């Protein structure tokens, strides 16, 4: 059972905003709620979660735990804020790989030069009955050549095959064409994706980093 909350009055909202503006000028607050059975207000600012005490003299950022229900309220809220509606993903900009009947869905934002992306691909090999949408998302600051390699993948006659080759041997024939890479990077920035690999499941759950196939399979569901 999750901690309940309720909306605050306009007066409380104004006072909290005023207090927070002293420590973080220009902070854009999206929502403020009062947590039930506590002296804390929860403040949502983008994907940032802050807590203000009832005296409105103290603010902190960190994990707030509901001891009675054994729930990390901050983690739970963060997961909600980081959800990405699967239907909002630009499917036409993805490399599509169908395994088995393809009834389950998984989207991955990946960099062709990212070592953990390559490790993730080895985990994905054992999955079945899933359609994987791979979005080319080069992290230029870490991998300067990744845009060129991502371009070669997208412009290959068989993108899925080229991606598989890039993840295994890395030897790709250079190619040039119009690509959706810039659009993908812009989309990623808008939804807060800043690392690879990042997985998006059909329920909107976002999972950054590489996790074992068993965990991925469980998150995919039946």
Automatic annotation (TrEMBL):
Belongs to the thioredoxin family. DsbC subfamily. InterPro entries: DiS-bond_Isoase_DsbC/G (IPR033954), DiS-bond_isomerase_DsbC/G_N (IPR018950), DiS-bond_isomerase_DsbC/G_N_sf (IPR009094), Thiol:disulfide_interchange (IPR051470), Thioredoxin-like_fold (IPR012336), Thioredoxin-like_sf (IPR036249). It comes from the Bacteria. It holds the Pfam family DsbC_N. Required for disulfide bond formation in some periplasmic proteins. Acts by transferring its disulfide bond to other proteins and is reduced in the process. It is found in: Periplasm. This is Thiol:disulfide interchange protein. Residues 11-75 form the Disulphide bond isomerase DsbC/G N-terminal domain. Keywords: Disulfide bond, Periplasm, Redox-active center, Signal. The gene is dsbC. Signal peptide: none annotated.
